[in-house]
Amino acid sequence: MDIEEAIKKALYSVSTLKSDSDIVGLSSLFKESLGAKQGSQSSANISKISIESTCGETCSACLKPVYPMEKITADKYIFHKTCFRCKQCKTKLSMYNYTPLHGEFYCIFHYKQLFKRKGNYDEGFGHAFKFYLHKD
């Protein structure tokens, strides 16, 4: 297997990876397959190659790369499935049990509680009531 062919295989495989340990495992296999065929000189060069995620999207909560299999998009925000949580109670949310409010996400229970507490949804938890004067 020549270097170009091995790189193409590795890059194709990267798009299906789910964790950093998968990347480490792939890079070690990549080094072994080329090292056996090309000798120690190529093996030293291969160690300089960094296999990184080809994914360009980052999680809005943790700011780490999001792979397609773990991606949730809510109101144009991208999350890992495990990072998509209620702002108030930190319960894991899904596409069926969340409500957005001003770029923040709540479980249905806390969204309803927010309305009961304030009488409206605009002020959020713990915000002081504000009066707005309108010029006529």
TrEMBL record:
PROSITE patterns in the cross-refs: LIM_DOMAIN_1, LIM_DOMAIN_2
InterPro entries documented for this protein: Znf_LIM (IPR001781)
Gene3D superfamilies, alphabetized: Cysteine Rich Protein (2.10.110.10)
Signal sequence extent: none
SUPFAM superfamilies found in the cross-reference section: Glucocorticoid receptor-like (DNA-binding domain)
Keyword ATP-binding in record: no
Record-linked Pfam families: LIM
The entry's keywords: LIM domain, Metal-binding, Zinc
GO function terms (MF aspect): metal ion binding
Keyword set includes Transcription: no
All residue ranges annotated as the LIM zinc-binding domain in the record: 57-117
PANTHER family: OS06G0237300 PROTEIN (PTHR24206)
Protein name as annotated: LIM zinc-binding domain-containing protein
